[in-house]
């Protein structure tokens, strides 16, 4: 009996290391793939910038109109070290971020509340649906001059522009998420005695959260666009004003520099949203094709 026990132990003890080895191999392959993806992204960017610089220096393209990466970097460095005509670069970025964040928060809250309400209450959807479709059909960028007339050159007009750009994608996703809730879940909740308020708070909203988060990634970019367009039309501070001022002096490097700073800000906020989404949706299986 002792011999059989001692003989069986190694066979059973050999399985966990094999499973661990396969898990480590999968993690190593995923890590290597991420490194390859990041390396390819950097290579594409460097190749693009290098080709742009060479074409500008050899007069294949006009450096006055198209500028070149070295001049753009010099412009950014000048803004960082000496500031802009409107104040420090950090102040311009903070001003634009404040307008974009304020408009984004207001637009998201309004879009989620109305989207869930109309998705849950068919009567409201039938009444307000045509009006929302008409408003959504209006090119919302053209509202920026109207907001400038209503609210002046201050941040309120830019916040309003950001709100109208953010509201509709969030609204339609929240509306669709509320409509796509599994009816069996709703029926089971009602069997357990849940009223309409509890069904909405404990079943519908959690089920629609994935839809809502999908719209958040896109909508923050729209908020930045609303703030920038509003500042470009008329403002006292902000990145949009830097673009307008650079354009007014035919400073192509200044225009591209402001666009570069805006792109970096957008990428950072996108990263924060992705991080928050992964923390909230740990249960969600990772996408096999996700290179992030």
Explain what you see.
Residues 1-24 are annotated as: Disordered. One of its GO terms (biological process) is transmembrane transport. The protein has 292 residues and is mainly α. The chain folds into 2 domains: 22-66, no CATH class; 80-281, MetI-like fold. The protein is built from 12 helices and no strands. The protein has helices spanning 2-13, 15-57, 63-66, 69-82, 89-120, 122-137, 143-151, 155-179, 183-191, 196-233, 239-248, 252-280. α5 (89-120) runs parallel beside α8 (155-179). It is flat. The N and C termini lie far apart (55 Å).
Number of domains: 2
Q: Secondary-structure element sequence? A: HHHHHHHHHHHH
Please give the count of helices: 12
As a percent range, the share of helical residues equals over 70%
CATH architecture type of the largest domain: Orthogonal Bundle
Biggest sheet layout: none
Q: What fold name stands as the CATH topology of the largest domain? A: MetI-like fold
- Averaged pLDDT, please? 82
Beta content comes to: under 5%
Distance between the termini: 55 Å
CATH class of the largest domain reads Mainly Alpha
Structural class: mainly alpha
The residue ranges in which pLDDT falls below 50 over 5 or more consecutive positions are 1-9, 11-15
**Name of the CATH homologous superfamily of the largest domain:** MetI-like
């Amino acid at each position: 009996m002792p011999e059989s026990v001692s003989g069986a132990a190694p066979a059973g003890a050999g399985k966990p290391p094999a499973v661990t080895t396969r898990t480590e191999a999968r993690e190593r392959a995923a890590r290597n793939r991420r490194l390859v993806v990041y390396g390819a992204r950097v290579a594409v960017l460097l190749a693009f910038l290098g080709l742009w610089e060479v074409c500008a220096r050899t007069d294949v393209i006009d450096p006055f109109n198209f500028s070149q990466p070295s001049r753009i970097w010099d412009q950014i460095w000048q803004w960082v070290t000496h500031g802009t005509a409107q104040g420090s670069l950090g102040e311009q970025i903070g001003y634009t971020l404040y307008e974009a964040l304020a408009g984004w928060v207001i637009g998201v809250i309004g879009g989620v509340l109305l989207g869930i309400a109309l998705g849950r209450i068919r009567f409201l959807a039938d009444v307000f649906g045509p009006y929302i479709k008409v408003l959504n059909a209006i090119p919302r960028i053209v509202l920026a001059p109207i907001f400038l007339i209503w609210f002046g050159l201050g941040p309120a007009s830019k916040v309003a522009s950001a709100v109208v750009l953010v509201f509709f994608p969030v609204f339609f996703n929240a509306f669709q998420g509320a409509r796509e809730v599994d009816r069996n879940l709703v029926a089971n909740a009602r069997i357990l005695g849940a009223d309409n308020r509890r069904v909405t708070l404990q079943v519908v909203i959690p089920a629609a959260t994935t839809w809502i988060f999908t719209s958040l990634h896109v909508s923050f970019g729209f908020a930045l666009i609303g703030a920038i367009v509003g500042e470009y039309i008329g403002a006292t501070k902000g990145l949009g004003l830097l673009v307008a001022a650079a354009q007014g002096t035919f400073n192509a490097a200044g225009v591209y520099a402001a666009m570069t700073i805006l792109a970096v800000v957008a990428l950072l906020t996108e990263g924060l949203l992705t991080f928050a989404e992964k923390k909230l949706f740990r249960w969600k299986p990772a996408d096999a094709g996700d290179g992030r």
